[in-house]
Input
Amino acid sequence: MRNHAADAKVFKAFCDENRLQILQMLRNGEKCACVLLEHLQISQSTLSHHMKILCDSGIVVGRKEGKWTHYSISASGSEYAKHLLELLTTQTDSAQQTDCK
Amino acid sequence: MRNHAADAKVFKAFCDENRLQILQMLRNGEKCACVLLEHLQISQSTLSHHMKILCDSGIVVGRKEGKWTHYSISASGSEYAKHLLELLTTQTDSAQQTDCK
DNA sequence: AATACATATCGAAAAAAGTCAATGTGTAAA
DNA sequence: TTTACACATTGACTTTTTTCGATATGTATT
Output
């Protein structure tokens, strides 16, 4: 039996336009928050909020280095999301139509 | 250049616990709304709202038959979501670290 | 030790999403 | 042509999410 709340959390990473824009940027390689911020029309605290959601979902990982935090797409997190998507949308072996009551 | 709003819409299907529970049920085969409703702790109007979001995302399709609407997971919609997920999480060929400002 | 910088956290406001009861619409049976 | 049923839509309310400015925290430089 799946934990729907935990599963939903993974996909929340992809449910916001700003987060998709962030992911788009990270596809080109690791970026620190200050660089991401330069390309977005949001405040620093809002960016920090989105990065937290992205990291909590497992799709992004942060690497602290001195004053900076470098973010990148997590290969394992992405694979897990794909696995989950497969799981959620694939018919079961015994799939059949259910009669109305 | 991707349409982030449209992409986000696809993944919203997977961002709510009730919708994940609905998908879980549909994995076992096509179900009409009344059957889904029997297994959920939500009102009929709320279910209708969720089915609209699921259908709008392309993950679910509805088939009207007399008084009933039979819902099922769309194979093509699911494939599209997988394709999108791949697109959003895969590094580009030229991926590289970007220096801080 | 003082300052500057990068990022996180807090608290409040605004926007979006989820929820329900009531009502509307379309279909079939009586 | 009533009546009953299945589902959609509306409007109001609640909850969650997004957003920002202000402030805190940690790190490096002067």
Chain A has a mean pLDDT of 96.
